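REVIEWER CHECKLIST
Item 1: Sequence provided? yes
Item 2: Single chain? yes
Item 3: Sequence as submitted:
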Amino acid sequence: MKFPKPHTLKSIAKLINCEFVGDSDFPVLGMNEIHVVEPGDIVFVDHPKYYDKALQSAATIVLINKEVECPDGKALLISDDPFRDFNKLTEHFKPFRPSNSAIADDAKIGEGTIIQPNCFIGNNVSIGKNCIIHSNVSIYDDTVIGNNVTIHAGTVLGASAFYYKNRPEAYDQLKSGGRVVIEDNVDIGSLCSIDKGVTGDTTIGEGSKLDNQIQVGHDTVIGKKCLIASQTGIAGCVVIGDNVTIWGQVGITSGITIGEKVVISAQSGVSKSLEANKHYFGTPAEDFRTKYKELASIKQIPDILKKLKDL
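Item 4: Structure as written out by the authors:
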């Protein structure tokens, strides 16, 4: 998430009431999670296990809960609670804006697009040409939808990320200031939920087709011309290549990459990145042929035991 205008290290430190290490005029251009940071961004880290990863990332400002040696060309914001202060920055730069109408006054809707009754179109939403948005669809603030997109009834675009910190008193949610981006020629079935990014974009690539009742987590990027069948659940920060086929009731864990032209059979559980141009099946999902050979071998166990008993 980029700020509307550049800020200085000193001004950001003042916003969250923390100390800083570095030039007071050090430029701060935005804030992002570690997997999408760029120079000028703030990244937060609150666990020693991840200090090095954050300090060595592309981010040039690190919001951290310990004063450590500052890498060359970077700056530090020293906070007793980086998670809390990252939320403060999100609330400052992307505050919640209540709506007072079903379709926001500043929403942009392209020529030939049809919005059926009982839809909600939030602030700063952009919808392209020749789209059909069926009844009871909710499109949250800042969502971007391309041309020739169809969205069926009951789908929600832009809900908050399922991202929580477990504190002694309760779970604390990481605020979401990102967007959902739907590219051209995408079809989305009924009752789908596509969460917005925490700071970046959750993206559905051009020409992809989603069945009914699909969950897509925050900051996930789905490539072009993918087919995803019903009741699939995709966690946050997943990258799915082009021309991937995912059959029904597949579960995909967070932070992995699925290569292009992968096929995942129904009811598989994907717990690690998958190599391109292969067919996968099972839980944990493995190469289709290998998995079926294993299942065939398992079926032979009773006969093998019987033969051993008869010896």
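Item 5: Key structural point noted by reviewer: The helical segments are 9-16, 51-55, 82-93, 288-299, 301-310.
Item 6: Recommendation: ____
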